[in-house]
Amino acid sequence: QKQQLITPPDDSPLLPDSEIGKLQSCNGSLLFYSRAVDPSMLPALNEISTQQAHPTELTRQKLLQLLDYVATHPNAVIRYHKSDMVLHVDSDAAYLVLPEARSRMAGHYFLSTDPQVTRTVFPNGPILTECRTIKHVVASSAEAETSALFHNAQTTLPIRYLPHATGHPPPPTP
C-alpha cells in the first residue's frame, strides 16, 4: 500500500506587509526568466505563487532557496535545432502535491522532425512549458492526468496553426 505524500500545514508567521510586495515582485521576475530561459523552476514558482497572497516565513524561505538555485546555475541555455516543425507535447500531472488537496499539471511543447508518435523523438528547445495548479480537486491520479491532457490539448490548438499562418509548408505525411 502506497503512502500519500501530503504537504504539512504552514504554521510559520505571516510576512509583514512591507515584505509581501518584494516577494511578489521577485516571484514575477523569476517567472519571466523561467518562461524565457529555464523552465525547470516552474514547479517551485507555481508553489510559491499559490501562497503569495498571504505569504509566510516559510514562503520566503522557499523563494530564497529558489534564488540560491538561480545564483548557482547562472548559465541556463535553451538550444533550438532545425526541424520540420512537427508539434509534440509531453503532458504530466502530480496528484495531491499542493495544499488544500490540490494537484499540479504540466505541459512541455516542442517542435521536431519526426511525426511518428511510437518512437522517441529528438527533443528540441521548448516553445512553451507550463506548470499550473489544477483548479478543482480531483479524485485520483488518473483524473489529474486527464485534466492535464485536456488543458494541454486546448493549449495545443492555436500553436498548431502558427507555422501554417506564418507561411511554413505542412510537414511531410508518414
Give the SSE layout.
Elements: H1 17-36, H2 42-49, H3 57-72, E1 86-98, E2 102-112, E3 126-134, H4 141-165
Antiparallel strand pairs: 1-2, 2-3
Helix pairs in contact: 1-2
Could you explain the architecture of this structure?
The protein is α+β, with helices and mostly antiparallel strands and 174 residues long. It has helices at residues 17-36, 42-49, 57-72, 141-165, and strands at residues 86-98, 102-112, 126-134. A three-stranded antiparallel sheet has the order 1-2-3, with helices on both faces. Helix 1 (17-36) packs antiparallel against helix 2 (42-49). The longest helix has 25 residues, at 141-165. The chain starts with 16 loop residues before the first helix and ends in a 9-residue tail after the last helix.
Radius of gyration computed on alpha carbons: 19 Å
Largest sheet: 3 strands, antiparallel
Quantity of strands, as a count: 3
Alpha-beta classification: alpha+beta
Model regions low in confidence, pLDDT < 50 over at least 5 residues: none
Indicate the percent of residues in helices.
25-40%
Strand content: 15-25%
* Sequence of strands across the biggest β-sheet: 1-2-3
Oligomer: single chain
> How confident is the prediction overall: mean pLDDT?
87
Secondary-structure element series: HHHEEEH
**Outline:** globular
| CA(first)-CA(last) distance | 44 Å
